[in-house]
Each structure stands twice: as C-alpha cells, then as structure tokens.
Amino acid sequence: DAGITQSPRHKVTETGTPVTLRCHQTENHRYMYWYRQDPGHGLRLIHYSYGVKDTDKGEVSDGYSVSRSKTEDFLLTLESATSSQTSVYFCAISGASGDKGQTQYFGPGTRLLVL
Amino acid sequence: GQQLNQSPQSMFIQEGEDVSMNCTSSSIFNTWLWYKQEPGEGPVLLIALYKAGELTSNGRLTAQFGITRKDSFLNISASIPSDVGIYFCAGRRIQGAQKLVFGQGTRLTINP
Fold this sequence. Notes:
The complex is a heterodimer. Chain A has strands at about 5, 10-15, 20-25, 30-40, 40-50, 55, 65-70, 75-80, 85-95, 105, 110-115. Chain A is an all-beta fold. In chain A, strand 5 and strand 6 (about 55) form a beta hairpin. The radius of gyration of chain A is 13 Å and the shape is globular. By secondary structure, chain B is mostly beta strands. Chain B has strands spanning about 5, 10-15, 20-25, 30-35, 45-50, 55-60, 60-65, 70-75, 85-90, 100, 105-110. In chain B, a hairpin with a 5-residue loop joins strand 7 and strand 8. Chain B is globular. The model of chain B has no long low-confidence stretch (mean pLDDT about 90).
C-alpha cells in the first residue's frame, strides 16, 4: 500500500466554522489531489498539486483552498464550512518514478459532517 | 463537468456468476482505469489500460479498452463474496495529464 495518511478520519463541525484536512505521504510522489465523494457523483476533483507551492483547481473548487508547503503534506481548507460540504474526502498521490501510467493511489478518506 | 457514464449503477448476483460492467463517454480517452472501493476505504487500482483494443487481466478480472476509445469494460468471472464493493472506472483524456475523470460507480452485491 502507498504510504498515504489522512487526518482526521472523522470530523463533525458546525456551519460557518473553518476546517482543515491533512494529507500526508511518505512516497515522495510529485502530484497530490483532493477529491470529494458523494452518492451518485463518484469522485470529483477539488484541487490538485503538481509540486511544492504549485496548485490548481479541479471541477468543484468553490469554497475550498489548498496549500502545499512541503512535498509530503497537502492541506485542504474549508474557510467557512457549509452543509453542502458534508462528504467523504479522499487524498490521492501520483508520480512514482518509472510509472508511465501515473497511477493515482488513494488515502483512507476523511468523513466530514457539517451541521 | 466531464463525467463518465458507468452502468449498471448496482448489481445483485449469486455467488459464482459472472459480472459485466461498462463505462462510456462522448469524448476520447487515452487511459482507462478500473478501481474497487470497499466500505470505509479508499479506491484501489485493479487494472490500467493504455491502448485502444487492449485487453488486460488481473486474476478473475478482465478489462478492455474500447476500440473507439470512448468506452471500457470490466468483467469478473466466477464471483466470490470478497468481490463485493463499488467499482469505479476512471479515464484520462490527455496523455501525460494528471487529472482523472471518474464514473459514478457500480455497487456489486453478492448473495452466497
């Protein structure tokens, strides 16, 4: 298994509060991604990073920001959580040396409930 | 945004039966991937396909990259209880690009 951890694994918060989710990798992969998973929508890309301090938006980026100050950490922040952001959040990594297919490996997920 | 149409959305089968699911798009893809997700875990890659017409197996799983490059198929032969889970297709439109597009998933339930 790829060395990816996410923290926290579960969180309950109130509408309007800031929330930060952390993804940590020990694989030294270049690329990191944040997805959200909701019933009927599969996995949708929120933001991704192609290097330290290099990030770009995905298809559902509104209401989210990210930061990557070190290769191993990719943070996802909800500045002011809303109930529509209740979801399961997955981090993924790719960019292993010699992997022509740039396979994405997923973390265990963070279940977020916004009340 | 771009989405892949995956079908069926759910399947209820008897142990030992074969399973088929597919993924289609209106756009051409250069890479097709199939993932499996079990409850409480992240998706795990099963099979990756890189060329039109490619047929690749992983144990009892076989996947094909459609000739038109707009679809892909996953078959599971002689299903067993541990095959239960949600299967996702994913595609990469541009060779070398990092972003993937995912299907909505097929939930597989097996009756012993």
